[in-house]
């Protein structure tokens, strides 16, 4: 069944062959340019180093009291009811260090040995109003980072000139897995390799030495300025969220400033790009896109992309945001409606991790009518017959709460709109429908209950377990006029929360088939609790299906599995640190409306037979395999020739995949090293998609913030 017309090309990062070697580019730099540029940068660095030393940050009485409040609420109201004991204190120690220095680039083993005295007393410290250990560690981190940046800025030209790109050495990609550096020499070697990798990436992106030094000087100078601006509230927020994050990834302390941003998001009073962002180490990462939002419509920005720069307008000066706080990045991205913001982005699927691309997005609000459910009809040809299949796309589970409370006769909600769409599809004589929940991140629990009631006569929809173990049921109202024709529910890795409840209920009642990829796995309920200073978002309950299994961590497993370009190792609840586990409660006796489970084996066999020669399906799976090849890399070569070979091989492989697909579709072959065009054959390739390729094209939850 044809589901959506979307291009897969957005997922192809095209790495172009370079005309000359990077080492040649460096050697060809004009002497006068390098001297004039570099001398001013060194002078700027020297002035910065001579600045007055920063005073040590200290916790305020207000922060001490807030920490006590947070600990009390965590122990009394959080779902896990976890005690803050020595075991948790030890975990807090490790998690705090991980948040401060995730790549283990600044602290040495000597620093860690000094800090070890704090490992088992952090719990007692918060209870007794003593945050000094955390601030001592933070001040050391700030001091180490500033020293690193000062020397790096001052010596950048010399350090880059000393790099040898012919050596056989590599950079560990999962740096957090390595031990702490033994001494200053090992820290210096890690810094050298990090600079070498960054420089090599920029060289491979066709930047010469002057451009590289200018780019990195600005980046490191901006980072230094951000570090100097860190205050006691920043230190407190990092530390206390290292604690809340141990309970689960969706429990967060929101400072007064962050709380204000959270309220702005709820009111939709500022315009942005329609993306949920999170902080991951020094980077701002796209968690997901809001369906029908500006970024989703523009089409280039993708989940797991890293935003490293932001510019106002199409030609504004780009601000390097590596190392920035999440709320500060969000403030840069927000702006007036109909204005343009330019993002500098590192693609998740690029084999050159430092090759960025620029994406221009026009700011706007997400209009309610564009978030509303929509229907379409597809003509499916099978055995010389035409079968009409209805499709209802639901971007989110929405309801106009104010209109509902005021008794408005025509207030909008998911269930009300879908009921109308079902009537429209019946008039068109469809034989069944597909409910498309791809990219649907959730929404109103009330709407999930009522929507399920359009497809089952009566019964429970979801179970909710409280911290005390009590399990409540959410049920729909009896509906003898429920829709009785066959249905299928389409999900992907970004279908979360309310979407998973609906898909799980349809699967448990055997009311229809679930098709797609494993869903996100967010099965918890959060509430916002006020504090004397800021607020606390904490997890207070957990969702369970009527069959007894939780949607938490595991999500919904489709009956018919389709491949996805989303990396399940990068996106999903099970990728988040300290995510609550999957478990079960007592199942609820319920009616089975069909025997779909008995059809799964037969349908899977027919599905495999149908796709074996399908060019679009082959095209997709080959792209996934190529992306997975790079996702599984644990080390990155710092040898220029090796890296160029990787890029050349990747380009050749993507050329082969693309042209095999084009030949199978009757289109002329294409060289991906050339500039892409919007010619007629490209448009034909996008429109002439088969049933499978359209089904599997994916659409649109660590600390997150929506802008």
Question: What can you tell me about this protein's structure?
Answer:
- There is one protein chain.
- The chain contains 23 helices and 20 strands.
- The strands form four sheets. Strands 3, 4, 5, 6, 7, 8 and 20 form a seven-stranded antiparallel beta sheet that branches. Strands 9-10-11-14-15-18 form a six-stranded mixed beta sheet.
- It has three domains: 22-245, no CATH class; 269-362, PDZ domain (Pdz3 Domain, Roll), CATH 2.30.42; 368-613 and 696-706, Alpha-Beta Complex (2-enoyl-CoA Hydratase, Chain A, domain 1), CATH 3.90.226.
- With 707 residues, the protein is α+β, with helices and mostly antiparallel strands.
Structure, briefly:
Helices cover about 40% and strands about 15% of the residues.
Look at the structure and name the CATH superfamily of the largest domain: 2-enoyl-CoA Hydratase, Chain A, domain 1
Number of strands: 20
Rounded average pLDDT: 85
Low-confidence residue ranges: 1-49, 262-270, 675-703
CATH architecture of the largest domain: Alpha-Beta Complex
The end-to-end span amounts to 35 Å
Instruction: Assign an overall shape.
Output: globular
According to CATH, what is the topology of the largest domain? 2-enoyl-CoA Hydratase, Chain A, domain 1
Number of helix segments?
A: 23
CATH class of the largest domain: Alpha Beta
Q: What radius of gyration results from the CA coordinates?
A: 27 Å
How would you characterize the largest beta sheet?
7 strands, antiparallel
Classify the beta-strand content into a percent band.
15-25%
Number of domain units: 3
Helix fraction, binned, reads: 40-55%
Estimated structural class: alpha+beta
């Amino acid at each position: 069944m044809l589901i959506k017309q979307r291009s897969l090309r957005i997922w192809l990062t095209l790495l172009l062959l370079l005309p000359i070697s990077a080492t040649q580019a460096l050697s060809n730099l004009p002497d006068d340019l390098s001297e004039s540029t570099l001398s001013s940068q060194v002078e700027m660095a020297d002035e910065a180093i001579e600045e007055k030393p920063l005073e040590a940050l200290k916790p305020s009485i207000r922060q001490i009291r807030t920490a006590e409040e947070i600990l009390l609420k965590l122990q009394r109201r959080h779902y896990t009811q976890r005690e803050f004991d020595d075991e948790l204190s030890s975990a807090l120690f490790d998690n705090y260090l991980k948040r401060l220095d995730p790549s283990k680039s600044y602290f040495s083993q000597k620093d860690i040995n000094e800090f070890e005295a704090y490992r088992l007393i952090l719990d007692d410290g918060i209870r007794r109003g003593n945050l000094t250990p955390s601030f001592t560690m933070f001040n050391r981190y700030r001091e180490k980072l500033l020293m690193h940046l000062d020397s790096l800025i001052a010596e950048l030209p010399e350090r880059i000139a000393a790099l040898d790109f012919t050596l056989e050495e590599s950079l560990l990609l999962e740096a957090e897995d390595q031990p702490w550096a033994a001494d200053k020499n090992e820290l210096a070697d890690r810094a050298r390799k990090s600079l070498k990798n960054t420089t090599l990436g920029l060289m491979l992106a066709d930047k010469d030495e002057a451009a590289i030094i200018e780019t990195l000087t600005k980046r490191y100078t901006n980072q230094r300025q951000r570090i100097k601006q860190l205050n006691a509230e920043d230190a407190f927020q990092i530390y206390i969220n290292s604690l809340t994050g141990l309970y689960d990834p969706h429990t967060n302390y929101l400072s007064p400033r962050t709380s204000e941003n959270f309220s702005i998001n709820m009111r939709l009073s500022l315009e942005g790009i329609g993306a949920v962002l999170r902080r991951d180490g020094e980077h701002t990462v796209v968690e997901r896109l809001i369906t029908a939002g500006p970024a989703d419509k523009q089409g280039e920005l993708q989940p797991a992309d890293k935003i490293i720069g932001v510019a106002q307008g199409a030609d504004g000066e780009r601000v390097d945001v590596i190392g920035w706080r999440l709320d500060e990045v969000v403030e840069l991205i927000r702006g007036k409606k109909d204005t343009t913001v330019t993002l500098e982005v590192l693609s998740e699927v690029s084999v050159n991790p430092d090759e960025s691309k620029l994406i221009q997005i026009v700011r706007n609000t997400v209009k309610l009518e564009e978030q509303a459910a929509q229907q379409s009809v597809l003509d499916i040809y099978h055995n010389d017959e035409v079968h009409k299949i209805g499709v209802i796309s639901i971007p989110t589970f929405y309801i106009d709460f104010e209109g509902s409370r005021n008794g408005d006769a025509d207030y909008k909600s998911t269930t009300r709109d879908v009921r109308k769409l079902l009537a429209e599809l019946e008039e068109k004589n469809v034989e069944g429908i597909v409910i498309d929940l791809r990219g649907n991140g959730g929404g109103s629990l009330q709407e999930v209950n009522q929507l399920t009631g359009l497809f089952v006569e009566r019964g429970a929809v979801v179970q909710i377990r409280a911290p005390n173990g009590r399990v409540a049921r959410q049920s729909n109202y009896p509906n003898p006029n429920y829709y009785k024709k066959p249905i299928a529910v389409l999900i992907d890795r970004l279908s979360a929360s309310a979407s998973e409840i609906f898909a799980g209920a349809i699967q448990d009642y055997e009311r229809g088939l679930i098709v797609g990829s494993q869903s996100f796995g967010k099965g918890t309920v959060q509430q916002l609790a006020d504090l004397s200073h800021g607020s606390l978002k904490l997890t207070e309950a957990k969702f369970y299906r009527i069959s007894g299994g939780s949607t938490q961590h595991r999500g919904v497993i489709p009956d018919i599995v389709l491949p996805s370009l989303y990396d399940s190792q990068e996106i999903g609840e099970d990728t988040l640190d300290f995510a609550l586990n999957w478990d079960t409660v007592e199942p609820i006796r319920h009616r089975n409306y069909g025997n779909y489970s008995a059809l799964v084996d037969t349908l899977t066999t027919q599905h495999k037979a149908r796709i074996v020669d399908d060019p679009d399906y082959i095209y997709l799976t080959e792209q996934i395999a190529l992306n997975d090849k790079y996702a599984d890399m644990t080390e990155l070569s710092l040898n220029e020739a090796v890296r160029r070979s990787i890029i050349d091989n990747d380009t050749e492989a993507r050329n082969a995949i693309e042209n095999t697909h084009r030949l199978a579709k009757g289109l002329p072959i294409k060289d991906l090293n050339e500039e892409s065009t919007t010619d007629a054959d490209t448009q034909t390739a996008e429109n002439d998609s088969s049933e499978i390729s359209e089904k599997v094209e994916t659409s649109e939850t660590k600390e997150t913030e929506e802008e």
